[in-house]
Write a structure and sequence with these properties.
Elements (H helix, E strand, L loop, with lengths): L11 E4 L4 H12 L7 E8 L7 H16 L4 E8 L2 H12 L3 E5 L13 H9 L4 E4 L8 E5 L4 H10 L9 E8 L4 E2 L12 E2 L6 H27 L5 E6 L2 H12 L3 E5 L13 H9 L3 E5 L6
Parallel strand pairs: 1-2, 1-4, 2-3, 4-5, 6-7, 6-11, 7-10, 8-9, 11-12
Antiparallel strand pairs: 5-12
Helix pairs in contact: 3-4, 7-8
């Protein structure tokens, strides 16, 4: 399924807060096909108010390491005092892991957002890819790579080529075309939204534009699949049309996807749907684990 890695090449920082989702993150790491000699740094951050519980925190950290050691993995425990977000990001900046893995926190009922504040901020500020894992965890069987053709998407493709997926995992590539124009009869005026057109304005040019979008979208899927094949991965392509986040999330539900892989930056604020808002919606609302591959481009 994936390109071979050299022994010890892939470094993982596992953020452990003892929550149900953190246990799911631990179990996912244990199921990855990691190279021999790979070391998992298990990081737990505590507040000054927890100083009296250090022994319990150390025991919990050791338990996480013990579970991973039973999978044949090397582990390195780290217990740090401070803000969880700051310490995870600082540790990543200093030690340069290939991946941060962490659990999503519990449901924030008022907003219906399945993500905790720490996970959200780490996704935003970490200097490397971040995998947010949701409980209950099931082995990664169905992976969805979403692409809009941007440099960030291309970077996600290259990263996926070295990601240690389980050998049995299947891979789909999804591209979402822009929503169709909506045909309505309404008087002309200076304040009419350009997305809305009268029946008379829906001409052959619109049909030709949709056909070109579909052709370009399929070409993007074909190029992406060919790139993945060159990296030792087989994939199938899916083309949908509509609101990007909605279409992706619907596809995840329909296909019972276990993990989404997404870039975090796109082409521009106008042209790209992976520019922040969509990738954030995927992490918040998709209901499955999400791997966000950050672009290293300057802002």
């Amino acid at each position: 399924m994936m390109a071979q890695m050299k022994d010890g090449q892939f470094k993982i920082l596992l953020a452990d807060d003892g929550s149900e989702h953190a246990h799911a993150a631990r179990d996912l790491v244990g199921d990855l096909t990691l190279p021999k000699g790979c070391c998992i740094t298990v990081l737990r951050v505590f507040a000054s108010t927890q100083a009296g519980d250090l022994a319990l925190l150390e025991d919990a950290l050791d338990q996480t390491c013990s579970v991973l050691k039973k999978k044949g993995l090397q582990t390195k425990p780290e217990l740090l005092l401070g803000s969880p977000t700051e310490k995870v990001v600082e540790y990543a900046e200093e030690h340069k892991p290939d991946l941060i893995v962490m659990g999503a926190k519990g449901l924030r009922a008022t907003l219906g957002i399945l993500l905790g504040g720490v996970a959200q901020q780490v996704v935003e500020y970490a200097p490397c890819p971040v995998l947010v894992v949701r409980a209950p965890y099931q082995i990664l069987r169905r992976i969805l790579l979403v692409t809009d053709g941007s440099p960030s998407s291309l970077q996600a493709v290259q990263y996926l080529g070295k990601f240690p997926l389980p050998g049995s995992a299947s891979l789909q590539v999804l591209h979402v075309l822009p929503p169709p124009s909506i045909a309505i009869n309404m008087p002309e005026g200076p304040y009419i939204n350009m997305q809305y057109r009268t029946l008379e304005q829906l001409s052959e040019a619109d049909t030709a534009m949709r056909a070109k979008e579909e052709k370009d979208g399929q070409a993007l899927l074909d190029r992406t699949i060919e790139t993945l094949r060159s990296l030792g991965m087989e994939a199938s392509g899916v083309l949908r049309r509509g609101d990007a986040a909605t279409e992706i999330i619907d596809h995840v539900k329909e296909q019972k996807i276990d993990m989404i892989v997404s870039g975090s930056r796109g082409l521009s604020r106008i042209r790209s749907w992976l520019m922040g808002s969509v990738s954030r919606k995927l992490v918040h609302y998709s209901g499955c684990s999400v791997l966000v591959v950050r672009s290293q481009q300057p802002s």
